[in-house]
Specification:
Pfam families: MM_CoA_mutase (PF01642). With 724 residues, the protein is of the alpha/beta class. The chain folds into 3 domains: 62-89 and 250-482, Methylmalonyl-CoA mutase (TIM Barrel, Alpha-Beta Barrel); 99-247 and 489-570, Methylmalonyl-CoA mutase (TIM Barrel, Alpha-Beta Barrel), CATH 3.20.20; 577-719, Cobalamin-binding domain (Rossmann fold), CATH 3.40.50. The strands form 4 sheets. It has a 5-stranded parallel beta sheet with strand order 3-11-10-9-8. The chain has a 5-stranded parallel beta sheet with strand order 13-12-14-15-16, sandwiched between helices. Strands 4-5-6-7 form a 4-stranded parallel beta sheet, covered by helices on one side. The longest helix has 33 residues, at 498-530. The mean pLDDT is 94.
Length: 724
């Protein structure tokens, strides 16, 4: 080989450079000018810039220039500020935990489903307690509607044994959303593991204690926040020694998201709450490095794919910044993130579309770097899932891992100019809102002032407005609905005897204990009242071992305590609810009268002349469940009027073009009103120069792209007697 020869790789690179040098690179200005020309006079800002609920305006094109001043892009996975993930190897060697909720009320039913699902791809136990258990009430002292609703009814150590029978908690991570009952649940769990001969040291997962989330969800707590923080400190202090791999503080963003909050608002509320918990724990002698590693952040994930990826990355970024400001070490600056797919955007109508929504959300969750995830079942808005519903939701996660291979690259979104710029913008805006809440005196004070609630209510109102004008859409509900759809019933059979059976079981449990055991339980419970946080869990475990129930322990912690101040709770809702109520009213009217209310389309002229507005009108009114009487068009006003009257429809929509309306609308409207004075005449379009004359001719309503769909449907349905 000649001494002047070059390696093949170098030769290829030189040839590539030579070829590329023959072409000029367009500048941003070149692209911008081409885009403006393509718009043919339309506004670049209005057409190509996208405002968001987060106060961030999205650009149509992102460049390296957009990352100037963004420092986190120089970081690597597993290193502070952890924006690229908590682990050096991402999900390559340890995928996220498939942590599906199983919302069954009876412990044995929960166990049956859990053991099935753990053999079919689920990798973590995600135990959600029912409302009664989360509030610290035993079934024999709780309203029936709170027993078994949305989670497991858990009262005694035997209940926990039945729920977790056959599950090796040394090998399987455990997440428990315990609500206000974290002390009692942890005591039950410790007693269970001791009985099983299992080590708490090997227990991995988390017990959820998040009093501010409970407060903002319900509007009240059964005791002052000081008691909640005593419980938090006791649980955290105990876990530091006895269960070092267990997180004890959960900071949830679910209530904020599912009330309509933006990504920035959800993140800011989570950050402010977490900072408040850090301060409160420091006040009782724990250090930031004691507390921060015991925290688990829980975020919702919606269908705005890139926004949600950026939100999760920004969550790690701002959390690391906050913990660093407290003096926490690098290990304390990272927190596991559990994600749950959104409830806000799920629909009762066309529920199978929910599978598609959750697929997008799950993809965002994995790309954003979650540590564990629950994908909601497609029929979640309808009722508890059955085996099929659970399997589809679980398999969504498994397909992402096993078939889509999303774990092959570490932080696959990293380096994207768009995602990195969006991550930075969310982090900056969330930090600003965090500071605004801090100026209120912290999260608890801000909640009492109603500041976060007001902020989120404004965003929720904007979301409602955008759904009502179809600026935002819910496919199958506000766009392309199926009027002939038969709603699916709840797939899981109703357990009508659940509340009665559970109350009787606990009553029998108390009888079986006898007076001697009851006296021992009372003695152990008395220790809980005045014990210090450091030994609170030990006292609770002793009480459980003696036979105390969850309700016994929580009641002992509340003796003599007044409830917290009442605050305005968040309005947790689904965006589709108001439209589903309209469909329900129409369905009830149809069942009562024997016929679905109909609207006649007065399509004027040949198909190309009327089709666009006819299609728009069909999609518009089918949202309310109306039957749309379509046709191929009429060549004369008289023909259209006669057909409309003959149809018997109580409302008519005139569909044609703006330039034909002056000659068509007045005579057609007058003919319709003359034949049937009560008929409702609607015009598809909004010809501003003719509005008054058309109204004078008898047109009752105009529909167009900026029309408030919901308001028009309500007005029409009231006029037709469908709504009161």
């Amino acid at each position: 080989m000649s001494s002047k020869s070059h390696p093949p790789e170098q030769s290829n690179e030189q040839e590539q450079e030579r070829l590329l040098s023959e072409f000029s690179y367009p500048t941003y200005e070149d692209w911008y000018n081409a885009a403006v020309e393509l718009l043919k006079g339309a506004s670049f800002e209005k057409k190509l810039l996208t405002p968001t609920y987060e106060g961030i305006t999205l650009r149509p094109l992102y460049r390296e220039h957009d990352l100037e001043g963004v420092s986190h892009t120089a970081s690597f996975p597993g290193f502070a500020p952890y924006v690229r993930g908590n682990r050096v190897d991402g999900h390559k060697t340890q995928p996220w935990d498939v942590a599906q909720e199983i919302p069954y009320g009876r412990p044995q039913e929960f166990n049956r489903a859990l053991r099935n699902d753990l053999t079919a791809g689920q990798t973590a136990v995600n135990l959600i307690l029912d409302s009664a258990s989360q509030q610290g009430h035993d079934p024999d002292h709780a309203p029936p509607e709170e027993i078994g609703g949305g989670g497991v009814s858990l009262t005694t150590s035997e209940d926990l044994e039945r729920a977790l029978d056959g599950v090796d908690l040394e090998q399987t991570p455990l997440l428990i959303d315990a609500g206000e009952s974290a002390i009692a649940v942890t005591a039950l769990l410790a007693a269970h593991l001791h009985k099983q001969g299992k080590s708490l040291q090997k227990l991995r997962g988390g017990i959820g204690l998040d009093p501010l989330h409970t407060w903002i969800t319900t509007g009240t707590l059964p005791y002052p926040l000081e008691i909640a923080y005593k419980k938090m400190a006791g649980l955290t202090h105990w876990a530091k020694t006895h269960a070092p791999r267990l997180t004890t503080i959960t900071v949830q963003g679910l209530a904020y998201h599912n009330s309509g909050a933006s990504a920035v608002q959800e993140l800011a509320c989570v950050l402010t709450t977490a900072v408040e918990y850090l301060r409160e724990m420091q006040a009782v002698g724990l250090t930031v490095d004691d507390v921060a590693p015991r925290m688990r952040l829980v975020m919702a994930v919606g269908t705005s794919y890139f926004m949600e990826i950026a939100k999760l990355r920004a969550t790690r970024l701002v959390w690391a910044k906050a913990v660093k400001a407290f003096g926490g070490n690098e290990a304390s600056q990272k927190s596991p993130i559990h994600v749950r797919t959104s409830s806000w955007n799920k629909t009762v109508h066309d529920p199978y579309v929910n599978m598609l929504r959750t697929t997008v959300e799950a993809f965002a969750g994995t790309t954003g770097g979650c540590e564990s995830m629950h994908v909601s079942c497609f029929d979640e808005p309808i009722g508890p899932p059955d085996d099929f519903s659970r399997r589809i939701a679980r398999n969504t996660q498994l397909i992402l891992h096993e078939e889509a291979h999303v774990t092959d690259a570490i932080d696959p979104a990293g380096g994207s100019w768009y995602v990195e710029a969006l991550t930075d913008a969310i982090a900056r805006n969330a930090w600003q809102l965090f500071q605004d809440i801090e100026r209120q005196g912290g999260m608890a004070q801000a909640l009492q002032h109603g500041f976060p609630q007001e902020q989120i209510a404004r965003t929720a109102a904007q979301r409602k407005e955008h759904l009502s004008t179809r600026h935002d859409v819910l496919i199958g509900t506000t766009m392309h609905p199926n009027v002939e759809e038969q709603l699916i019933p709840p797939r899981y059979p109703e357990d009508a005897d659940l509340a009665t059976d559970r109350a009787r079981e606990i009553a029998n449990y108390r009888i079986a204990q006898g007076a001697a055991i009851e006296s021992l339980v009372t003695e152990k419970l008395s220790k809980i009242l005045n014990t210090s946080p450091a030994v609170l869990l030990e006292a609770a475990i002793e009480a459980v071992t003696a036979g105390a129930t969850l309700g016994d322990i929580e009641h002992a912690l509340r003796v003599g305590q007044e409830a917290s101040p009442t605050i305005p709770p968040l309005n947790i809702h689904r965006g589709a609810e108001i439209f589903e109520a309209l469909r329900a009213a129409t369905d009830a009217y149809t069942a009562k009268t024997g016929a679905r209310p109909a609207i006649f389309l007065a399509n004027m002229g040949p198909i190309p002349q009327h089709k666009a507005r006819a299609d728009f009108s069909i999609s518009f009114f089918e949202v309310g469940g109306f039957e749309m009487l379509n046709n191929n068009g009429f060549l004369s006003v008289d023909e259209a009027a006669q057909a409309a009257i003959a149809s018997g429809a109580p409302a008519v929509v005139i569909c044609s073009t703006d330039d034909t309306y002056p000659d068509l609308v007045p005579p057609l409207t007058q003919s319709l009103k003359a034949a049937k004075p009560e008929i409702i005449v609607i015009l598809a379009g909004y010809p501003q120069e003719h509005l008054e004359s058309f109204r004078a001719a008898g047109v009752d309503e105009f529909i167009h792209r900026r029309t408030n769909l919901y308001d028009v449907l309500v007005k029409l349905m009231k006029r037709l007697g469908i709504l009161a």
